[in-house]
Amino acid sequence: MSRKKNASTQSPYTCFPANLKSRISPMDKWTVQPIHWFFIRILIFFLWACIILTLALIHILHAHGRMLHWFFHIFWILLIIIILGSLVLRRMFGPLRWLLHGVQEISNGNLDFQFQVQKYHGEIWCIAHQFNLMVQHIKNMIHSKEQLLLGVSHELRSPLTRMNVALAMLPEGKLKNSIRQDLSEMETMLEEILITEQLKNNNGQLKLSQIHPLSLVRQLAVHYKSRKPKIRVIVPTHDIIFQADEERVAIVCRNVIENALKYSSHQKKPVKIFFKETRSHVKIYIQDYGIGIPQEEQERVFEPFYRVDKSRTKTSGGYGLGLSLCFEIMRAHGGTIELKSSLNHGTLITLTWPKYPSNAVQKSS
């Protein structure tokens, strides 16, 4: 079972399959063109009509003894009819193919797609115009939802700051530690929301520098050394380097490792991290042997606030923002995130980073 998100082209903020590829994919694009049975049936009907007409003419001419004289004339006439008929049918059904292309674009998460209908008339173009209005309405709804979330996140920062000041005045004890932990979780959640929105709207600045992924992962392994079932880092045979925003690469690796440890804490096998380098990309693999993710849930794990465990208790996980943030960071770098999971057998996350992110959303360096 696998789920891939192509973070360079799709967004988890939409409800469309594709993608909007773990979307992303991964997942989600129509990788195989559908067979146009409607058009094929019409073409077959047209060919049979030509064949029947030909046989009828041959029978009539044969009865009158003019078979050989008229045979080649009939052949060329029918050939011309078939060619002209094919061109006419192609012209007639062109708008339907055009509509199908638009539906594919929207299903893949491209909500910027619009039909050009100003110069055309007829029922098909009317449908295309209504389709444009529908897509625009969906975009506005999604934008309003995101703006509301962003606005609330900004507004919550001030009261959180005041609460931290008030907390500092309390005496040390279990109550203070509990409140401090709750405030820390809320601050982390707001920070992830704001970073995600910045990256999604291409406003987040990527400070590209040379990254040594082995060194970064080792630092994280030291940070989590007390967590079960431990972390095992497979050292590559040579030094691997790529360009990226080091702070955000660390956020991605930390979130994925955190999930791997959380959902495999009952296992004896440690979380395994290994690397692979190609000519143009660097891949970081994070493998756990925990509870896994059900197949029907895999295509939604990159959506914001989505959690496999719906109880939303502190013991069962965070707020469902970690993988969504990872997806946006990968998209901003022009990379991909791929998930393969089997229930009760574990999960493998593959982070594919371009060595030189030419198509990264880079605002500064």
Description of the structure:
- The chain has 365 residues and is of the alpha+beta class.
- The protein has three domains: 37-107; 143-200, Helix Hairpins, CATH 1.10.287; 208-354, Histidine kinase-like ATPase, C-terminal domain (Heat Shock Protein 90), CATH 3.30.565.10.
- It has helices at 37-63, 67-107, 123-168, 174-200, 213-223, 246-262, 295-298, 322-333, and strands at residues 2-5, 208-211, 231-233, 242-245, 271-277, 281-288, 336-342, 346-354.
- The strands form two sheets. It has a six-stranded mixed beta sheet with strand order 1-7-8-6-5-3, with helices on one face. Strands 2-4 form a two-stranded antiparallel sheet.
- A hairpin with a 3-residue loop joins strand 5 and strand 6 (281-288).
- Helix 2 packs parallel to helix 3 and helix 6 packs antiparallel against helix 8.
- The longest helix has 46 residues, at 123-168.
- The model is unreliable at 8-34 (pLDDT under 50).
